[in-house]
Here is the input.
Amino acid sequence: MTTHAPIIAPSILSADFARLGEEVRAIDEAGADWIHVDVMDGHFVPNLTIGPLVVSALRPTTRKFMDCHLMIESPERYVEAFADAGADGITVHAEACPHLHRNLQQIASLRHHGGGSVSVGVSLNPHTPVESIFSVLDLCDLVLLMTVNPGFGGQAFIPQVRAKIRALRQEIVARGLSTRIQVDGGVSEINVHEVAADGADNYVAGSAVFKNKRHPGDYAGAIAAIRANAAAAYT
Ligand code: DX5
Ligand code: ZN
Here is the structure.
């Protein structure tokens, strides 16, 4: 079981891109802990989104942790630009990194705008065995387990990933690490208690915040519901 307080990270992929700055301010005020930024290159995933210029433009709109999820090939070419743009954390995909250890070391060596070091994350697609990153776990502040196939918001949660969350939590506890487990894709107030019980402690939510039918336009209500249902599973 986790000892961390839950972190709720709304994904701006589901926000209104014509008003992105306002949307970031709105989720900040609504109680988001982190701002999750989905970066896609049209190669690693079949979609194109945003780059360091947008992160840099959004940086003055919030003081919250800017969590950049890089779904791109050759991330070593861009991580420094994201750090300079104001990323607090950078997550790369293991599947996109034949030299993953080197990639993670590179991120760890970066400093962000505020002077602190950039938080290091590694992400796994639903089919990738979690044991494949055990050898680099001590380099990671965060492991992002994809609970959909990356590329798009609004997809259905893949329940088979739950066994990976449990195996990863067991490994983290056994080794006495403080690595966070982030889940991303199809996570909502309805199923968050399941992944929380499995050992996740960091929840990305796109449509469940920006397009929630139970809390239409009420980002604070949506974030509070996810937080409450996650926290309930910890007790
Ligand atoms: C998918 C992205 C996710 C996605 C989450 O490739 O990494 O962050 O936007 O959106 P929902 O919560 O709608 O599945
Ligand atoms: Zn993401």
Residues 7-233 form a domain with the TIM Barrel fold (CATH 3.20.20.70). The chain has a mean pLDDT of 97. The CA atoms of residues 9 and 66 lie 9 Å apart. Helices lie at 20-29, 52-58, 79-85, 100-108, 162-174, 192-198, 207-210, 219-234.
